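Supplementary Methods S3. Input chains for the assembly prediction are listed below.
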Amino acid sequence: MPGDKLTEDLIGDRFGVSRTIVRTALARLNVEGLVDLQPNKGAAIAQPSLSEAHDVFEARMCLERQVLTRLADKVTDSDIERLERHIALENKATPNDGPASIRLAGEFHILLADLAGNSVLSRYVDEVVSRCSLILALYGRPHSSDCSLNEHQQIVDALRARDGTRAVASMGHHLEAVTERALLSSTTDKHRDIRTILDYYAK
Amino acid sequence: MPGDKLTEDLIGDRFGVSRTIVRTALARLNVEGLVDLQPNKGAAIAQPSLSEAHDVFEARMCLERQVLTRLADKVTDSDIERLERHIALENKATPNDGPASIRLAGEFHILLADLAGNSVLSRYVDEVVSRCSLILALYGRPHSSDCSLNEHQQIVDALRARDGTRAVASMGHHLEAVTERALLSSTTDKHRDIRTILDYYAK
DNA sequence: GTCCCCATCATTGTATACGAAATGTAGGAA
DNA sequence: TTCCTACATTTCGTATACAATGATGGGGAC
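Predicted structure tokens for the full assembly:
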């Protein structure tokens, strides 16, 4: 799907709105890094290079560690409760393993950022999480979920203990694992799109 | 200036373009946090609350520390040279103390981020630096420069020594100082805009 | 004198229209 | 056959037009 052209007229017809609306949406998705936009050539679903993908994961690591540093200081019991309920949802969704599972895994991270109560961090985390989903679609194994439930649980456990150091470390390990699942597998997987291969060897 | 209404027609006439162009520009500035955008009521130069301002500075600290962590590992001699030349420019601009000085101070941070070579970090740093300039205009003392030259020099010195720990620490101290100059002074300064005062007591 | 309602105006939100750039295609020459 | 050029078609970039929403001010009632 990444690389697909996004023609303004088609999308407009699809949603029953004019090109004006589509255009503003595409512009927004462009600054968020989800669509590539070339002048006079139109929009396409973003195809981040491996190098860009690493950049996104590095930024994500930096931002989410900060989120947990904050959270460990200010998290409330009802916050913990809410996180636990979310993990329960994730557990429930795992069996059928559809796109709902991937969405929920991302929302866990976004929920953490929201609870941290910093609007800037929150927006940036939202952005990098979305981009990571895209990267997973490009480079990850098909059908691989990007987050292990166990790892989410460890983060919440550390938060419940108000152990900031452990919480940050848990998130660190989790994101290392996510990065590995999303990126490192791509060098061996034969099923990947030809564009990905070319991109990889082009460094 | 923050809080001023931005009428699409006026701006369009001012620059000789149609509302279409102005609108896309305003939308972009809105996602970057520089203009507030209320549905059916138009755009205005952003007026971040003190709490939002602290959020921005916290995110900035987190991002720029990461920039220096990266840079300490990969900085080249020609990078150092370029940073030194930039500081020389800043020194030259200080006497007349105009807006050029403020712009150069911001560009030093953006240059650091660019040299770090992570496109995501680079974009985010660009954004928070812009927002900090806005915050300085809102809450800072009039005519106060937001960056001390000496502090910039210390950062480059640490980079030249390839001392990552010291570089991150220097940036940390620098941004602490910047935050203080931009925010803490606002509680005592009688010359501040009435809106700022109200905003502050409204927490 | 003050408050409220309605009319008018200003400004935004969305659609459409038109010119420009780029891409694809057919035809002819080497 | 292959390459190049000219034309046609598609799609984008910008301006303009119209509808909808919110702001402003004046007149009347209490």
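Chain A has two domains: 5-45, 50-187. The first helix of chain A runs from residue 8 to 15.
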